[in-house]
């Protein structure tokens, strides 16, 4: 009895990049599961040609109506990146979650396409050691609890590069020359970031070699002159760069270009994976880093303290949920509801100085500013604030501490 | 009836800098309260000569045994800055709490000196609009619930610069020429940082003028060549720079020098004060910024995920407590107990690259590292991790989401 | 110069109960502030006749158009009590916030009436030691930042019962015989609860005397036979009792009657006031206690674990915000948004057993139940759950602990 | 090749109750793994004779030196139950974690015995659907990362009662008459509680039948007269009942007797398991319920507000960690450190009234009380509290809300 018969899977939608690994998976699904394959290739702004994926799929016998290539760039930034940025989310203090936030969108489309094509399963090329398998699968199960999921890297025995390539050749899959050897590291890219990990990065004491970086110039090679930019926000989302209104994806793309030029957004991190191990990653998030700083800048003058501090306390949990793959969970949605409510009137303009790896907020203004020069001033405030009120404020805040002190 | 009679205060310990403002306060206490004054001047590494304070105090009739000038630098860094750094504390995402963390130490000494000299009150020169009054007074009350506190800025009517100077001249207090006009901004300094606020900084849209900075070179003027340094940690605290063991204060001083040179640790922030208003401040924390990043770096490989994430969730509250003046509170001490427990084995070496405002971790190693190349590797892991386990892990994590999905 | 002239207050809206204390306040405002007074008496289901308040106000010269008596019972339960119950809010583990939740509604009406009548101030009869002053005033300021607030208990010198009564008699305010002596305790009542504090309750070692209770029978005197009831919920709010649909206030009133009969909802508590002291209170929340338990009961089968645990973690903060008077704050609204989102499908029927002080959930059912007998069963589950998945689940959850264990 | 050969396991320590299920497991380990078995039977106060377990083990060929029967009652209460009670831990608002807290202690002894006897594996009788497997195994792995774990219920095919009994008879294991049929529910018991689940309890709408309860009388059958008791605490732990000093286990046992008599501590709950499903359980925690309420009672007067509120916010996470099996984790230990620090001076006496299912605190006193009658009194407080301070306190707390209000 074949696997297909055992599993009962008749049609599977594969997250297909067109690269060697997912091409092997495509063929392996055909051979081992004996089932129809639908390919789905997403344009998330990873900066690669996607049409070759169509050709390769055709070569492996996929009919045109089963080849999906979708431009998801606007949806990605508008419905995933921006909501996350409203939370000022950073995992473990630093990581802007560039890979994590793309996975639920891919799963969402996989499930939609499965419905459109009558497929009963989805498949992905993530390995059994990483977070991405979890993110793909939790999202898929949340959106369709009956879906079947195939994760070839956890099932097959092609566990070394050599065996994978042998298998590819046995099955007439073309293997590009530069894929024959081991890649010195592994990458993932989308409009928000590029991540690299593995191989040459595995010793966390060794500095990341410069050739690993692909999205940013080395700060040392960045311009010697700072560049000032203005970003406009409306209700918590970026809407314009230097006064020019832009769609979400267009804005992020423009910030990526600025970040690249000024060497902004490089991060070398040892992080804790959901599956229980530590890994060392290198991230480049040029536009995202600028955007994240700008967002905090506009919040500084438009967000009330109570809202701001609550957001700061909720953020680590929110970031953890995204990192762990729980985008489509009630608790992430609850936190999002709280965060989104706070973003009303997070509107105005932030000025940043970009210079050799730095993206610093140097000014912010807003028609909805809560900053009151009248109240805060060292000068005469015309009675806006009665300094004597502070005495009572302190006295009552101190009362419990004094009662404690008396006990000692 | 004089204020002294009303208040019943006989002797007061004044936090005395030797500057014009606290000199006026000294005299005003003598005149208005008719009480003995004890002066206390702390060396917190603010980089000023303190002996002139002694002379000025003598000139105003303070007997030598009532003039305290204490070097608190090691205590400051060892018992206040380092414990706070163990928490990775940043207020509102960015501020390293340089002013906030110094206040409880000053209050602690004020209360100790009050006990030594039999004083029944303490006095400080913080204004009624700021956070420092709260920090001074909450700490003082916590340590001595019966202490009386005099905050002249909330009491007197010398509310303009002109009146203050007139009063000073009427009472034979020398007014230096450069203090006659308005200072363009107000500063506070200690070994951890220098802060500036007010006047020219009051418009948050205007970039902070370069002349406001005093502790760091402009990144544009910093060396064109990066500098690499190693910092050693033992159980969560820094112990050595480039292999040379140093006391806490010596280490921080050395990092300050490095930070100054490379333009590291400048921060322009609009923050929320505990007293309810927003203010705009400029901070320079050169050594602190380097140290904070290094500490996170060593935690990356030595701290378990559960501990690390709990710390991240507790941090905003912890930082808020320090900012608001609750250092000597049960809840800060509880959080500290949790944090300190986590720091066992946060031991090892972090390598940083300093360059024009950037202080980036580029390597970390530890005899207690939890990073396992054996487990994480993309290569054959000799059975250290069974990728098939991930299937069950995902299945059970997904179960509740699937049950939810079925309901929809 | 009169206080009125100094304060500039021309017209004030007074939260007026018609009792002796607020009658004295009414007169005192007329005498001391020389301003017009508008009286506002709210029916929150406190179980008192309100028309006498109208008569008394008239006797003190308030024109009819300045006498407001409003039935707020439905608004109170629908817009304040029920939203709070969705959060399962209990302050310090026990207190159902019966007084706290009424204050913002009263303030809201005070501010609305101030607008309608062109008043520039509001006044209340809460003392300077309690929480209610804070709750009234924070709400009032949030809704109208320019409002002036008069809190006579913090201003006047009628600080003993004797002086208050003397002043009343001097100003021709009738003093009922039973108000001449000291009341043995002080109470507050509304549809959700009755609270008592002070005097005979001030020693927290002494048991609350039975005569203090007014809303519930002593459990020892309650029926010897249990009573079973069913409560229906739709999207988190109660809608029916024993199959009979009811409005929010009607439902709460019916539950109050049941709670009274069975001696449910008595609470003797020493709590921490926002103003910094501990106080001992006695609360009776008969219907609220039943409702609160029923709400948890329906959540047990309809709320996902992620949502439920997030709610439990947010609850203490949410309860604290209400207790401290921050109902009209961005952070309370943010938490409410999160909580409300979770309540979709918190729909179904809860069965409770009421018996001598106990209100225990004994059954719950829902068309949206997430409880799956198929999955959980000890019997054959027909493959709904693969026990082997648990092995991988445990293995990956254990991985970080094993790496830690290896270090030790 | 036998399983033993494959697994390489030579000796296994089995958590052995002496009942039918673990007797079958014992034999199955001998047959299927061909390895030596060491039995460990813990006395956790479950109220069963343990010597029969020794006889049964001998009958199955276990040598005396491989039969461990340990009285862990004092260690259980002192080192597990009491620390947990310091946190006021309740899972999902209600459950006192009676089963959860016993598992780490059993695992601790399993690992100790494995070390003493040179065993390379441990085994337990928990099923693959429940939480207990997770708790046993996470604890075991944390304490010995190299240990092997056998969970027969996840491995074997004896998945129906009939097959289990057949297998037992084939292997000469005596099957008591009353074990031949299906048990109507499944129980776990220790000194803290008895839990029951499954079968007749699987419909959450059906009331738990009275015959399921074994540790408490039905409140309807409890005495008609209330009983008052005093419990003393020292630094957060119970030390005496009605003035008689007792060890932890003796105290809990005495409270169990009182709880049984008065029908206290019954709980019918639908809870969320860590493995992702909801289950319905019935718990009886007679002494624990009394103790938990008493502990909150003594905290009311001895714990500062800051500490109390922080504890309340941390509690749900702490309870979740215990429920999920993470007792031996850094994050549980961090939370414990914070909680334990707060318990200094949680010392004094609590008075409770026990009556037909109710255990209500009616009085509390302490030499370290923070409750100040002098401050809180409605009477003249001799200046202990200045009501005018409240004005400033409110004004500054309101400031940010007013600035917000102005924006609207």
How would you characterize the overall build of this protein?
Chains A, B, C, D: It catalyses: L-citrulline + L-aspartate + ATP = 2-(N(omega)-L-arginino)succinate + AMP + diphosphate + H(+). Chains A, B, C, D: GO terms for molecular function: argininosuccinate synthase activity; ATP binding. Chains A, B, C, D: This is Argininosuccinate synthase. Chains A, B, C, D: Keywords: Amino-acid biosynthesis, Arginine biosynthesis, ATP-binding, Cytoplasm, Ligase, Nucleotide-binding. The structure is a homotetramer of 408-residue chains. Chain A is an alpha/beta fold. Chain A has 3 domains: 11-179, Rossmann fold, CATH 3.40.50; 186-365, Argininosuccinate synthetase, chain A, domain 2 (Alpha-Beta Complex), CATH 3.90.1260; 374-400, no CATH class. Chain A is 42% helix and 19% strand. Chain A is built from 14 helices and 14 strands. The first copy, chain A, has helices at 3-7, 20-33, 51-59, 73-86, 103-117, 132-143, 152-155, 161-170, 248-262, 286-302, 305-324, 330-342, 373-376, 389-407; strands at residues 11-15, 36-43, 67-71, 121-123, 148-150, 186-189, 194-197, 227-234, 237-241, 244-245, 266-272, 278-284, 348-355, 358-365. In chain A, helix 11 runs antiparallel to helix 12 (330-342). The interface between B and C is medium-sized, with 25 and 25 residues.
